[in-house]
């Protein structure tokens, strides 16, 4: 199946390289023009450089129902999924990439039981409702060091896997170790990644969710990106207040950790909800249905993390705080554990591909 996908991609790319009508649409076609033949490594690089803006599909005179059936966004979407699976070592882990929702549900259940039993042991009470006094700290349910350790271990493992994937992928697409240390290319790649400039369709926006040009996908995507960053800043501020200033939580609604966390959470909610809405409207012909489970699973877990985080904040002085806290923690740790199998992998592969692109055009 994987070989057929490569054959289909190679057939399409050879036609694109002869036609060149799409050469100004996105960097993928500029990278295509630098080649006369396409190895499997080249095809995987191009697939991960593609941002799925779909401009080439709607501009192509050979797109379906033409006999050539050129559908670059769909074939690249399939190959990106194969990339993610190819970086998993066992059949079990590859199956998780295919069916992430089952693994996520199982992980959440185990995590919920783990934190529930831990809280019962810590508090000495069997009930999860009202087992602490109002305005008590979250740490009266589960100790701070216990929470740090249980969250840090899966995060560190996931981060290690991401770094290994980055190194292996650099080698696969032909970036030598010394070539990955060029500061200018990293600055240019980071700028592109943060601004999502390859989703601007040359200034007109993407052909998403339909054929019309629109910036909606880029905007929602950036809401998610900046929501991530601002909530991370909130966590850093909270850690500074707790460990350097010795000001323990819960923090007031006007404190910096809560303000930053609320802004970041709101941006995430807007972005994730918007991306889900666009999915209901999108043209599914230039889309690989194989990636649907991974896309939706990632959005749902992140959305539930934010929603339960807000619920913990709003009901932290009520008898519902312990159960809401445990549900929120279980979802967050599910997010960390499933990271190596999630859609977020694309950030690593895409960043390296963007870096290679700027390295090629700056030679």
UniProtKB/TrEMBL annotation:
The chain crosses the membrane at residues 101-121, 141-163, 223-245, 257-278, 298-315, 321-341. SUPFAM superfamilies: 4Fe-4S ferredoxins, Respiratory nitrate reductase 1 gamma chain. The lineage of its organism: Bacteria, Pseudomonadati, Thermodesulfobiota, Thermodesulfobiia, Thermodesulfobiales. Keywords: Iron, Iron-sulfur, Membrane, Metal-binding, Transmembrane, Transmembrane helix. InterPro entries: 4Fe4S_Fe-S-bd (IPR017896), 4Fe4S_Fe_S_CS (IPR017900), Citrate_utilization_prot_B (IPR012830), NarG-like_sf (IPR036197). GO terms for molecular function: iron-sulfur cluster binding; metal ion binding. It comes from Thermodesulfobium acidiphilum. Gene3D superfamilies: Transmembrane di-heme cytochromes, Chain C. Signal peptide: none annotated. Residues 7-37 form the 4Fe-4S ferredoxin-type domain. This is Citrate/tricarballylate utilization protein.
